[in-house]
What we know:
By secondary structure, the protein is mainly α. The protein contains 5 helices and no strands.
Amino acid sequence: MIDLGLSKIAIIGVVALIVIGPEKLPKVARMAGTLYGRAQRYLHDVKSEVSREIELDELRNLSKEVHDTATEFQSDIEHHLSSSIKDVESAWHGDIQPSAPAPAASLGDLERKAKDFRRKKLVRSSAIPAWYKNRHGGKTRVLSGAARVRKFRPGVKSNSSFF
């Protein structure tokens, strides 16, 4: 940008006053201001158009990458699907024996895992850390509301059963 200081602007103003004259100077200054504003708007429009073109080019590249990835993914799926169909057809015709499915987890294992998960979740979500509870003998299990009512109800022993 042009470096115009106060002294340079004053020199330009004095020269313009001498050359143009005092009657026409305000009109010329207004005209110069409007032309300068138009030039700034034009430069701003050109900059925004260039940035739009750059963004459009980036979007085109991104679209191409997505399309290539989708095509690769589709071909991979088609390949796996065709190999699976061939395996099923060969098993149907008796060419090969299908492999045995993996043994499922027993019901006892699932119950044990669920119990451990619930216990760990309750210990984690309580306000006092488990190490503090273990060290100071605090409770490590959370009682439900019904269990607390039964435990602290007067006249009822918590260890006895009704039957």
